[in-house]
């Protein structure tokens, strides 16, 4: 059942009664070739690419809640490929290319909007750092334009350019960066996977991982035992708990990251904009709400709600950068649970248990990685070999110190990212 | 979130710097081996529930504290001077 403009008109004429649920609600089978633990964006895209690219259709996605109910429905929807370090750079470049063909591939409107992303800078030193980052992005084959102050003013006339403390010197424009409708990404991958025969099993919490003789045999769940030759753990903030079922301790601490949305406004912010002198970034949703966020709260948490100090910081930064935002009313704020690694970069790797794979550590940047992570993790699970763009996301880089990817240059330590 | 500092009394979270899991108090010996150091530096139990972590009262008495709190609710139960926990 495909989507088209014709169908939208036809359903409109007949009372919208022809739309059907786009994925089944199957009972779990006793055995699958592979099981994905976690039905978030990354888990669903993994299942989709396992089926599409590797012909593995006897697989299941196990989700303890409902599809779209985790971080994939709680993020600020930014899509970009402006990473600097080898390892990250090629991965996010690949992921952005998948974003650009996702809607045709899935036959699903994810409202991917390449409206341009502008990272502002406020000093000569910061300009140099962004020029260097822009060159790295161009070398990777992506796009970057260094804007001076007047260049930024053409795009973002509403900013406080002459702020006494943090005047705006310019910005790094990433024209292919933008946003997407986050729920639609989850739904599109769920539908695409389901159409290829993947069982998406909601309200099914994994309570144990069965391992015999160093090999994974399946999982224990709240809906019974499911045997599987291969198991992939893709559970973001809950990575620590699920990995513990396999006797693993991960280099991950879970932290809360807050986000905010205002009441709906007429179009006012046309791009994704980030402040360079405080942690604040913003875009406007298609519904009109200003969607913005800041840094993590900086203490380990699973509460999915934050405390006031970071809220204050984000509001301070917003008012410093764009005083007009003081007229808007914040509608709500929320928090998501981030799987933070010491170096701030992710993990897509095998484990010491044969047949058990893990995809985690996306920190506060998992949304843009949804297609790339699923593609690369599916490749690893299906072939046993690392997919080239994600080949540096190794679990053992912390133990050996080889290949750490500290994108922020702050040190590879838990409380620094 | 407020933390009851043994020296200063109950203070706002803003006064404190968060270091991480109190496992950092248990520094391995130099010859403990790579695995022990990896566990010390990187690998974490990362509990969803009760936890013990290390906070620095930066905006107060500047003591290091071991704080017992709940990561699901943000409830803070107790704070002890790290020097007493460490012996």
Quick structural gist:
By secondary structure, chain A is an alpha/beta fold. Chain A has helices at 5-13, 41-54, 88-106, 124-139, 149-155, 182-195, 239-244, 308-321, 370-383, 397-400; strands spanning 31-37, 59-62, 78-79, 117-121, 145-148, 170-174, 178-179, 199-201, 206-212, 215-221, 224-233, 253-264, 272-274, 281-284, 289-300, 330-340, 347-350, 356-360.
Q: Can you offer a commentary on this structure?
A:
The complex is a heterodimer of chains A (417) and B (87). Chain A is globular, with a radius of gyration of 21 Å. In chain A, helix 2 packs parallel to helix 6. In chain A, helix 2 (41-54) links the parallel strand 1 (31-37) and strand 2 (59-62). Chain A has 2 domains: 5-77 and 182-251 and 343-416, FAD/NAD(P)-binding domain; 114-176 and 253-340, D-Amino Acid Oxidase, subunit A, domain 2 (D-Amino Acid Oxidase, Chain A, domain 2), CATH 3.30.9. Chain A is α/β, with parallel strands linked by helices. Chain A is built from 10 helices and 18 strands. In chain A, the strands form 3 sheets. In chain A, strands 1, 2, 8, 9, 10, 11, 17 and 18 form an 8-stranded mixed β-sheet that branches. An 8-stranded mixed β-sheet of chain A has the order 5-6-4-13-14-15-12-16. The mean pLDDT of chain A is 96. Chain B has 87 residues and is mostly beta strands. Chain B has one domain: Folate-binding superfamily (Folate-binding fold, 2-Layer Sandwich), CATH 3.30.2270.10. Chain B has helices spanning 34-41, 82-85; strands at residues 2-5, 9-12, 17-21, 50-56, 64-70, 76-81. Chain B has a 4-stranded antiparallel β-sheet with strand order 3-4-5-6. The longest helix of chain B has 8 residues, at 34-41. The termini of chain B are far apart. The model of chain B has no long low-confidence stretch (mean pLDDT 95). At the A-B interface, helix 7 and strand 15 of A face strand 3 and helix 1 of B.
């Amino acid at each position: 059942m495909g989507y088209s403009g014709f169908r939208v008109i036809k359903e409109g004429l007949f009372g919208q009664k022809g739309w059907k649920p786009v994925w089944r609600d199957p009972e779990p089978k006793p055995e699958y070739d592979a099981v994905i633990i976690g039905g978030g964006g990354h888990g669903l895209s993994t299942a989709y690419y396992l089926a599409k690219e590797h012909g593995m259709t006897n697989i299941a996605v196990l989700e303890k809640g409902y599809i779209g109910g985790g971080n994939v429905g709680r993020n600020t929807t930014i899509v970009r490929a402006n990473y600097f370090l080898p390892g990250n750079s090629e991965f996010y470049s690949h992921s952005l290319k998948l974003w650009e063909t996702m809607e045709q591939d899935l036959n699903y409107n994810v409202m991917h909007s390449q409206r341009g992303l502008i990272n502002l800078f406020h000093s000569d030193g910061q300009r140099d750092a962004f020029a260097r980052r822009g060159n790295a992005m161009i070398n990777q084959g992506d796009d970057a334009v260094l804007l001076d102050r007047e260049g930024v003013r053409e795009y973002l006339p509403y900013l406080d350019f002459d702020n006494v403390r943090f005047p705006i010197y310019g910005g790094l424009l990433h024209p292919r960066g933008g946003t997407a409708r986050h729920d639609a990404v989850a739904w599109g991958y769920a539908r695409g996977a389901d159409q290829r025969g993947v069982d998406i099993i909601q309200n099914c919490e994994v309570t144990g991982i069965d391992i015999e003789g160093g090999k994974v045999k399946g999982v224990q769940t709240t809906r019974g035992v499911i045997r599987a030759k291969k198991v992939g753990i893709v559970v973001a903030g809950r990575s620590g708990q699920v990995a513990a079922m396999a006797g693993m301790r991960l280099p991950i601490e879970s932290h809360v990251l807050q986000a905010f949305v205002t009441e709906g406004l007429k179009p006012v912010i046309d791009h994704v904009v980030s402040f360079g002198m405080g942690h604040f970034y913003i875009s406007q949703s298609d519904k009109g709400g200003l969607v913005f966020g800041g840094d993590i709260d900086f203490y380990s948490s699973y509460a999915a709600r934050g405390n006031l100090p970071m809220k204050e910081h984000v509001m301070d930064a917003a008012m410093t950068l764009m005083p007009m935002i003081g007229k808007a009313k914040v509608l709500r704020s929320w928090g998501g649970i981030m799987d933070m690694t010491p170096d701030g970069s992710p993990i897509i790797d095998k484990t010491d248990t044969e047949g058990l794979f893990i995809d985690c550590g996306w920190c506060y940047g998992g949304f843009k990685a949804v297609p790339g992570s699923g593609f690369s993790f599916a490749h690893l699970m299906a072939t046993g070999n690392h997919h080239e763009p994600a080949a540096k996301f190794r679990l053992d880089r912390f133990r050996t110190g080889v290949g750490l990817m500290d994108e922020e240059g702050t040190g590879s330590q838990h409380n620094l990212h | 979130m407020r933390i009851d500092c043994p020296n200063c009394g109950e203070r706002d979270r803003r006064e404190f710097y968060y270091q991480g899991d109190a496992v950092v108090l248990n520094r391995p010996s130099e010859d403990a081996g790579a695995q022990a150091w990896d566990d010390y530096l990187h690998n974490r139990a990362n509990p969803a529930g009760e936890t013990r972590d290390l906070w620095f009262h930066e905006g107060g008495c500047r003591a290091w504290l071991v704080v017992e709190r709940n990561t699901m609710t943000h409830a803070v139960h107790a704070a002890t001077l790290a020097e007493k926990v460490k012996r």
